[in-house]
Specification:
Blueprint lengths: L2 H21 L11 H25 L5 H24 L5 H23 L8 H19 L1 H4 L4 H29 L2 H6 L2
Helix pairs in contact: 1-2, 1-3, 2-5, 3-4, 3-5, 4-7, 5-7
Length: 191
C-alpha cells in the first residue's frame, strides 16, 4: 500500500464526513454550526489528495492496478456525492445531476471497452476543463455565499446557476468530444 493509494483511500473515507457536514449544516436546519465551511474544508482536502496522489504516483513510478481502479472511482464518488447532496438541498436540479452522472457512466464504460482491447484513453482537454469547472462550482455551492452575504444573495444565486449550467454544457461538450475522438474503440471491439 503505497502513498498514492493511501491518499486515494483517505479521499474515499472523507466522503461520508463531507456529506454529514454539508447536509447537517445549521443553515439547512441541521445541528452543525458552520457545517458548510467544515464541508468545504473536507472537500478541499479530498480534492488536494486527488491532485497529489496522481503526481506522486507518476513522479515516483508508483502506479498500481489498485490506483488505476480506485483513483477515478474515488473522484467520481466525491463529485457525485456532492451533486446528489445538492439535489437534497434543492441547489441543483435533479435532471442536471442525472446528465452529469450519466456522462461519467458512459465514459467509464467506454474506457472499460478500450482497456479490454489494450487501448489506454487519456483524458481530453474538454474533460479536464469540465472537471476544473465542476470543482469550482461545487466549492462555491458548498460555501453558500448567499447565506454569508444576504444583501447580495440574488446575485450570488444567479452566479451559482450560471456555474451549474456551464458545468452542464461542458459535460455535454466533453462527452461528445470524447465519443468523437474514440469512436474507433467500439468499432475495434466489433471485429
Amino acid at each position: 500500500m503505497n502513498l498514492p493509494n493511501k491518499l486515494t483511500i483517505l479521499r474515499t473515507i472523507l466522503i461520508p464526513f463531507f456529506l454529514v457536514a454539508l447536509l447537517c449544516d445549521e443553515n439547512y436546519g441541521g445541528f452543525i454550526p458552520f457545517g458548510n465551511w467544515v464541508a468545504l474544508a473536507i472537500f478541499a482536502i479530498a480534492s488536494i489528495t486527488d491532485m497529489l496522489d496522481g503526481m506522486i504516483a507518476r513522479k515516483y513510478n508508483l502506479v498500481t492496478n489498485f490506483g488505476k481502479f480506485m483513483d477515478p472511482l474515488a473522484d467520481k464518488l466525491l463529485v457525485c456525492s456532492a451533486m446528489i447532496a445538492f439535489i437534497e438541498l434543492e441547489r441543483i436540479p435533479c435532471w442536471i445531476v442525472i446528465i452529469i452522472i450519466a456522462r461519467e457512466f458512459i465514459i467509464s464504460g467506454f474506457r472499460l471497452v478500450a482497456s479490454d482491447n489494450g487501448i489506454v484513453i487519456a483524458a481530453g482537454i474538454w474533460g479536464k476543463i469540465k472537471t476544473a469547472e465542476q470543482m469550482v462550482m461545487l466549492c462555491i455551492l458548498i460555501a453558500d455565499f448567499g447565506n454569508v452575504f444576504p444583501t447580495i444573495a440574488n446575485g450570488i444565486h444567479l452566479f451559482e446557476n450560471i456555474l451549474i449550467y456551464v458545468a452542464l454544457i461542458l459535460t455535454l461538450i466533453s462527452l461528445f468530444d470524447y465519443l468523437l475522438h474514440n469512436k474507433g474503440v467500439l468499432a475495434e471491439n466489433n471485429k
